[in-house]
Fold:
Amino acid sequence: MLRNGNNACSPSPIFAAMKRIAVFTSGGDAPGMNAHIRAVERVGEKRGLEVVGILGGYSGMIAGHFEVLDRVRTASIVERGGTVLKTSRSAEFTTVEGRAKAAQQLKDHGIDGVVACGGDGTFHGAHFLSQEHGINIVGTPGTIDNDLWGTDFTIGYDTAINTAASAIDRIRDTADSHGRLFFIEVMGRHAGFIAMDVGVACGAEFIAVPETMTDVELLYQRIVAQGLDKRTIVIVGEGDELGGALKISKLMESRFGVSSKVSILGHMQRGGSPTVRDRVLAARLGAAAVDALLEGITGVMIGEQNQEIAYVPLHETWERRKTVPTYLNDLVSLLV
Ligand code: F6P
Structure:
């Protein structure tokens, strides 16, 4: 991890000439991305920069879809979910040719520095742009999964867990009323952060996550202990090695004759107005990203660790694995 003051991040005179920066969102949208875009625009303007929005993530960068942002364009977006700049998962950008086109567009549009908001796919792309084409670029963590090493939280995570928790509370009402077993699947492709937090918050009887092998015998014992005619809530992280809530439900039926209901929360977890926590994190990281570019910092993610801004080399964010905090694992073993 690099922090302010580290030699590897020392300013270069070239950046004194920085005039025009760009911001874009990429990969899965996350609540708070609009607050982030707004902050980059406002802080950029305060620092005397022109701020350009790239529409549609890396696809829009390749196609040259650029738009100058101003206070009017970024007004009244702070409370909105999704991303006003739109987003994409670009297959073309994964090719050398695609990235060359994107870099050329940045040069043609006179972009001196870029803020890339997204998850690990976005950061891989930003890393390549920096390495292959010398683009000055910093990443900011925008994903509901919270699975990026080097930042305590990602933009969108707090909103997503609150959205998931309120949906689960509603399902619990019907599970309670009927005395039913529910398998509820939450997002989190490779990581169980969402599952663990909402599992604790919603009083789940069992939590299945991608990080650990799910013991079906133990799961069955828990269900029996709870009472087959009683409300039982099992939270399943979508990346669980058994294949998600539907597969686990079918497995419990075929192996133990236990019937259940399945609810896959899906993309509703990504939508909605961001929480205050997400808006503030998004704004703080946006402001820090602009200042980092001005200081000549490039090729890093701007994260937050123990309430301090941290600069983390982009490749470390995916090479090092962020694990669910110990206190959460402990809580789960005490409460679930
Ligand atoms: O990147 C966050 C995420 O919501 C994951 O939790 C999920 O697996 C994935 O995106 C879904 O992506 P898409 O919307 O492209 O299907």
